[in-house]
Amino acid sequence: MKIQICQAQIDQAPIVARMIMEAMDHDCCQWFAGEHHTLDDFYALMQTLVRRTDSQYSYRNTLVAVDGESRVVGVCVSYDGSQLRSLRKAFIEGAKAAFGKDYSTIPDETQAGELYIDSLCVDKNYRKMGIASALLRATIAKGEAMGLPTALLVDKGNPKAEKLYTQIGFEYKDDNEWGGHPMRHLVYSLRKK
User: Fold this and answer.
1) pTM, to two decimals
2) Is beta strand 62-66 parallel, antiparallel or unpaired with respect to 72-80?
3) Is the CB of residue 20 less than 8 Å from the CB of residue 50?
4) Would you give the DSSP letter of residue 45?
5) What is the Cα–Cα distance from 165 to 161, expressed in whole angstroms?
6) d(CA 182, CA 186)
7) Which among 162, 137, 44, 19 is positioned nearest to 99, based on CA atoms?
């Protein structure tokens, strides 16, 4: 099967939003939405955020894997860690308007000096075909073009994902926590050429 990695387009927002939610985990999405709102409500917000140009989840920050029939089968959202707070404003404002919840005090999951992989997801029907690896390599190349090492957080309870990242070349940097989960901060360092 031929897979191509390319820049996401605004009209792909519905599938990109769905895949970001899968990467986040639906329990986490429901927690953000709150008990008086549904996953469909959160999905509506995520589609809006993907369509925006000033959101961490923007299509502009997203690489997609497409199959030979132009179906999106994987996504990888990444951005310069120094821009997290300005990019996160769209989510904070959107969640406040949609759910009446204020997430302005949420801890930072990244920092200046790294291209941060926020979300990575491959459609369940296309897993174990090397698509996640291809998306990761393309994102690493994006980071190298920006002069930034590529970093991510992986849940300590997800050793299969961590194994994939370390096979690609990510290395453990330090411990972190996000969303109440203990995480490991992994970095793919810039390579000297």
Assistant:
1) 0.93
2) antiparallel
3) yes
4) H
5) 6
6) 13
7) 44
One-character DSSP codes across 130-182? SHHHHHHHHHHHHHHHHT--EEEEEETT-HHHHHHHHHHT-EEEEEEEETTEE
Low-confidence residues in the chain, pLDDT < 50: 193
Beta strand pairing call for 181-188 and 150-155: antiparallel
Phi, psi torsion values for 100, nearest 5 degrees: 70, 25
Task: Provide the 8-state DSSP code for 34.
Answer: -
DSSP letter at 184 equals E
Q: Which two tokens stand for residue 191?
A: 């390579």
Q: What is the DSSP letter of 114?
A: S
**Between the CA of residue 3 and those of 22, 64, 99, 131, 169, what are the distances in Å?**
21, 10, 38, 8, 22
Distance, in Å, from the CA atom of 125 to the CA atom of 120, rounded to the nearest integer, reads 15
What the block records as the tokens of 136 is 């990761």
SS3 75: strand
| Beta bridge mates, 119 | 77
- Show the tokens assigned to 51: 């369509």
> Tens digits of per-residue pLDDT, 117-173?
999 999 999 999 999 999 999 999 999 999 999 999 998 888 888 999 999 999 999
b/e per residue 156-188 (b: at least 16 CB within 10 A): eeeeebbebbeebebeeeeebebbeeebbbbbb
